Amino acid sequence: MRTVVVIGGGILGLAVAWELTRRGTDVTVLEKEDRWAAHQTGHNSNVVHAGLYYKPGSAKATMSTAGNRSIVDFAKQYGVPVEICGKLVVATSDAELPALKVLAERAEANGVPAKLISAREAAEYEPEVSCVAALRVESTGIIDFPVVCTTLVRLLDEADSDLRLNTTALGIRAGSAGGVEVATNDEVIRADALVNCAGLQSDRVARLAGLEPSARIVPFRGEYYELRPERRHLVRGLIYPVPDASLPFLGVHLTRMLDGSVHAGPNAVLALSREGYSWGDISVKDIAEIATFPGVWKLARKYAYPTGLDEVRRSFSQRRFAASLARLVPAVRPEDLVRQGSGVRAQALLPSGALVDDFLIESAPNQVHVLNAPSPAATSALEIAKHIADRVG
Predict the structure, then answer these.
(1) What mean pLDDT is predicted for residues 73-93?
(2) Which fold has domain 1-83+142-215+356-393?
(3) How far out from the chain centre does Cα 135 lie?
């Protein structure tokens, strides 16, 4: 039987392991933390994306549109909480109308069920929203991605897969008899092939395997607030701004969760550690890596002022955060917000300073490395897993 070792126990690593197992492969999954979905998967907004934003024909567009269906089908089959509630993308001024129209055209090109509606029609969905027009996207949903992961772990357990927590890959080399050898803190694991789904550490794992990846991971932290229970009535579903097409982030938005709570965020600030969930999480090694990478300085020249500075100010100011939300729902006040957790996005950056816009997957003999898989990777996880399984062979 063919053997594959998967590094990374988030939703993508577990989905790849499950897809390979279904194809008759003997799989070992290595996760350095003491729990599954410890990083990006366990800290995201739990939105099932529709495939709205992405360049037609791109991997993100095709995989998220298909993933929207497959992840919902998986959830329904295995009893994972999910709700297809739809969302509004709202233009708050006439200046945003051309971008909203472009978004509607992109939705049509990607096969996403969406329609432009008037401010009056938008108010029927969200009575407290402020806009001049909106795009109603029907197939967007809310899911519990950590529960998707626990379900995948259960299925893999039932299939007798080798699942290892607290196991760090320390060295990777070609095996003497072919395949790969992965040295861990416990033992050397031999397999026919390797799949790197290490997220925030993916470029480092690739270098550990002898590759020089085309992009470097730069961590961006997204911080969240929550509406106080007595103010949850202000939001019925999901309300998003028209995004800045030049940035990979969708902007601060409002999301009603499965439990009825309403999350607000995230912003986007450079994290001072690969796994830096607060300003106090600082890694000298990670800062040095960031500071010595030319792409970061080229990115900074483009976005540090005013965009980056505004994001940092919003990070430290609940009033500024509330003001961003009030553009969408004017009734939101600073005192309505309670600070919640944060997530860190593994954003791939090229030496040129360009942000990698699409999923980035690179291969070497007997190796597949996922080097850029931020949102909508969770939505697309089952589809990305099929693609990777095809490449592993």
Answers:
(1) 97
(2) FAD/NAD(P)-binding domain (3.50.50)
(3) 22
